[in-house]
Amino acid sequence: MKDMIERIIEMDTAARELTQRAQKDKINSEQEIEKKKEEIRSQYLERARKRISINEVTEKKLAQEKMKKIRDNQNEISHNLKERYEKMSDEWVDMIVKRVLEG
């Protein structure tokens, strides 16, 4: 009988130790999962920041190229208008005066 009680106590002690180890393993696993999750999140954010930086440089370069094309086009239009004005201004003045006088 005494052996049987000792055996029950040993089994209970062993079961409690197993339960405690399982609890510790569970806590450790949860901590590892949280740590890994944070690492993955940090890596993702770092990659995203790098992509944003690269995209920012690319977008600025494209915007500068577009602005240059627009300025070149505006300069060309302005030049063409000046040339046309220089060629046609006397004729336009004469036409306006003629219409006012006939009018």
Short description:
With 103 residues, the chain is mainly alpha-helical. It contains 1 helix and no strands. 98% of the residues lie in helices and 0% in strands.
How would you describe the overall organization of this protein?
With 103 residues, this protein is mostly helical. 98% of the residues lie in helices and 0% in strands. It is built from one helix and no strands. The chain is rod-shaped.
Number of helices: 1
What value does the Rg take, in angstroms? 43 Å
| Order of helical and strand elements | H
Contiguous uncertain segments of 5+ residues? none
Round the mean pLDDT to the nearest integer and report it. Answer: 93
Strand content: under 5%
What labels would you give this structure?
103 residues, mainly alpha, 1 helix, rod-shaped
Write the layout of secondary structure elements.
Elements (H helix, E strand, L loop, with lengths): L1 H101 L1
